[in-house]
Amino acid sequence: MFRIPSDAATPTPMQIDGGEGHDRQITGEEASEEQGYGEKGKEEKEKKKKKKELGESNLDGLCCSICMEPWASHGDHQASCLPCGHVYGMSCIIKWIQQCHGYPAKCPQCNAKCISKDVRKLFASPVVVHNEGLQKKIESLQTEIRSLKNEGKGNMGEFLMYSDICLCVINVRKYIGRSVYMRAGLLDVQDKLLDVQDNLLNELHQVKKKQADLENATLGGMGSKPLGFFSAKESWGENNGHHIDSNISKQEILPCSFVLQQELAVEGATLFDMDASYQILILARRISGMGGTHMLNKINLICPHENEDIQLPKRIRAIKDLRVSPCGRLTLLASLGKKLSILSHGSNELVINYDLQDPAWSCSWDSNNPSYIYAGLQNGMLLTFDMRRTRNPLQCMIGLTSRPIHTIYSLINNPAFGQGAHKLLTASSIGPCVWNTGCARERPFLVPGLENQGICMSLAYSPSSDDIVASYRPKILASNGATSSQSSQSSTALNTVGSQVLVKRVAGNFYNKLGSTSTNVSYVQMTKSTIINIENCYPIFAYGDEETHGLRLRALPNLSDSQNLKPHQLPILDVKYAHSQGSGLLGCISKEKLQLFSPKYM
């Protein structure tokens, strides 16, 4: 048995298989450091002890390749990736990019160019298979290593045995480390969930298609006409819009009213929407006492007094529109900070941000494709985005006017009429417009019969009944006789008498003006309205009355008053209705409070 001289001038390296075509050299100097000789050896020992306390979390695929420390599922060091696919801790890769002082940085692993906006947070936790047998074997081998260290430092045979044990430990750890690659299966699970979501939406569309076919079966006697609108007599009979089709008359039409269910005090509320499936309400607020800070509130509809504050980045600025996804769990935000954002209800964070060329005034999800979203800009343009692409819009369309698009609705395609393109219903000050996003060259057009009605202040649409209600205020004549969409500074009255016009979309391409009525509207405030559809009841149009500051309900199609609900001290800013599994909820907000009403058959 030979012993290694302690005063050897040159340490002899030993080759140890490192796996995957790489060999590792262990020298006598490194062995002495492993045994604790020198300051450097102590530091290495402390690092190894720290890694052991982390539960072997430094396996391949769990560590940031910049700092060599495990990344986290949240916080400053949350796992984040670049467009090239390489993963780092968020704080590390941000510092790496900032070192370039505004110039594009390069990925530390593949040299692909990247900037700070390219960094995307990852929310999937790594998957590691725990094997108790292998873990016990590692612990026993480590105990044997420590005993060999104490028995003799210079024995060659023991050194070879120690090297063999190190090799065994490395191979065992590599075996466990391969289980980390199972996290790739999470991406497959995500794809399967998206497929399930698409299937559910397709089933929903089939149900709505059958309902539309049933309704349109009664329109066979109308014949075909050019793009336009039918007269009220042709559509609803000779009784001025009160005739009910024979198929509908077989069912009992019940009167319906709403009762106050909950009233909450909210400060600085501006907009809201409800997720009926998950019983969540998302509320946009502006807190004046915090320097005009804009934020969101997530309210539990089962326990409304349980809510969470969601802070928004300062660059987002004021929220002009928000829409909860038809599938729930996500909210689409349009803001004056030239951003179109998507909020996750699970993490309360903005998971997608699109940069826009102009402030956004409105937004909408696509009713036919869950991946498509839309933004209406202040300059009158309409943008189409695909959530699977996070950089540029798929389509940019120029409107009929340069004034803001304040409302967007996605129209449901009816295959029975050969409508394959995505159609949108929007509103700006000139009135409701119809867009065909499937043809970039096709210009939008005003809904027939609604030309020269005044300044369009609000638009409500019901996809189940295809009813459209547009609210107008009169145009203001300037001193030179021209019309203006802005309020006159010399005008002392904030409210005036406007109009509400009911139009029905028929057979996908035809629009039938059914009637109109007068109402109190604001000269300066643009409000929201909604249409309520309850089974076995007439559709109901809900809006905020500018004179009483109360929620007012009108029965369709005759636009007659059906109910005036409890008034607010300040004007109503937003009205929404949500339903799920046969139950519905009507809500309205002002800057002071939120009211929730439930339907009740009379």
UniProtKB/TrEMBL annotation:
Pathway assigned to this chain's UniProt record:
Protein modification; protein ubiquitination
Keyword hit for Methyltransferase: no
Q: What is the lineage of its organism?
A: Eukaryota, Viridiplantae, Streptophyta, Embryophyta, Tracheophyta
A Gene Ontology cellular-component term: nuclear body
Stretch list, region Disordered: 1-51
Q: Which InterPro entries match?
A: RFWD3, WD40/YVTN_repeat-like_dom_sf, WD40_repeat_dom_sf, WD40_RFWD3, Znf_RING, Znf_RING/FYVE/PHD
What CDD domains would the database entry show?
mRING-C3HGC3_RFWD3
Domain RING-type spans what residues?
Answer: 64-111
Q: Does the keyword Zinc apply?
A: yes
Against PROSITE patterns, the record matches this protein to: ZF_RING_2
Enumerate composition-biased segments (Basic and acidic residues): 37-46
Q: Name one GO biological process term.
A: interstrand cross-link repair
Question: Per its record, how is this protein called by name?
Answer: RING-type E3 ubiquitin transferase
What is the reaction catalyzed? S-ubiquitinyl-[E2 ubiquitin-conjugating enzyme]-L-cysteine + [acceptor protein]-L-lysine = [E2 ubiquitin-conjugating enzyme]-L-cysteine + N(6)-ubiquitinyl-[acceptor protein]-L-lysine
GO terms for MF: ubiquitin protein ligase activity; zinc ion binding
**EC annotation from Swiss-Prot or TrEMBL:** 2.3.2.27
Keywords attached to this Swiss-Prot or TrEMBL record, sorted alphabetically, are: Cytoplasm, DNA damage, DNA repair, Metal-binding, Nucleus, Repeat, Transferase, Ubl conjugation pathway, WD repeat, Zinc, Zinc-finger
